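Entry for the shared binder. Reason: the reviewer on the internal report wants the predicted structure included alongside the sequence.
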Amino acid sequence: MKKYKVALIGTGRVAEHYLWLQKMQLTNFLEYLGCYDKSDSKSSEFSKRHGIVQYNSLSELLAKESDFVLIATPSGTHFEIAMEVLKANKNVLIEKPACLRIEQIMELENEANARKLICRSIFQNRFNMAVLQAKSMLESGLVGKVTSFSLRLIWSRNQEYYDDDWHGTWLLDGGVTSQQAIHHIDCVNFLIGIPKKVHAYAQNSLNVLEAEDTLVSIVGIDPNILGTYQFTTAARPCDMEASLMINGTKNSIRISGVALNYLEVFNPVSKNWDRTVAEHVDSGYGTGHAKVFEYFFEGDAISTFPTMKDSKNAVMVVDALYESYESGTEVYVERIKSKSKLGVRTP
């Protein structure tokens, strides 16, 4: 397998997961040529721990020859950094969400296309065995016509998680919906379809942050498919569940586990659930990043690989949920520009 030279921007908890994947020999095809983080102390500690060269400026890192640049910085910084990477004529892969604003995602895509570069974003759960098998079952007609669904994310983030300079802020992050649940929103988009309307309620159930730690919503995908979202990081004591139940005219399937890593099909004979996929994971991240990295250059030929349009659609749903929460009304999801305060500096 070809080795790819990767420049890493951001050395936080997601970057640690990338290096864990390499330690588990799932990404031996990557060669990390260097890293950069605006926090010199964080970058230095990361560099020493993993044996990756630390660069003191973004321009210095971008001057090095690389196959692609991997951005794992706070969400609200993705747009400016990714644009700088593209203007340095480098391919770029951005951790989710690609940007917090819809128009920023489209601007990055236009810049990449104009320069004939590759710009993609990460939704690693699309490569989970359970998600791929569920997609196959839906396409084969096993479920029949989908009638309803329920998406649940029951995770735990202690107050310390939000006590930095970006987590939980409207400008750089948002809450559970945009930071954690956007992965699972994308899976609904991928498996069932993009919602047409949402009516959301949100609050801080336990944690103190600008945005929300809990959100619930009624979701209409088309006139015949009604569903619900339930997201929280106020569960204790740990992450418990990331699940999606899909009901149809013939049967029901359920993707469950802490990272959408199990697949179950309802058995009408035993009146119970039969587990058909069981993928071991160590955390809610799962292992799908390895496939995202592997297929980065082949993404256009792989239907599973998320496009920038998919990234735009996921952020569009998030923005609609926040607009609904802010206005207290049902809102239509379709939009070409963001309407909520996500990604906007507030007084």
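Summary line for the report: Residues 36 and 58 are 6 Å apart (CA to CA).
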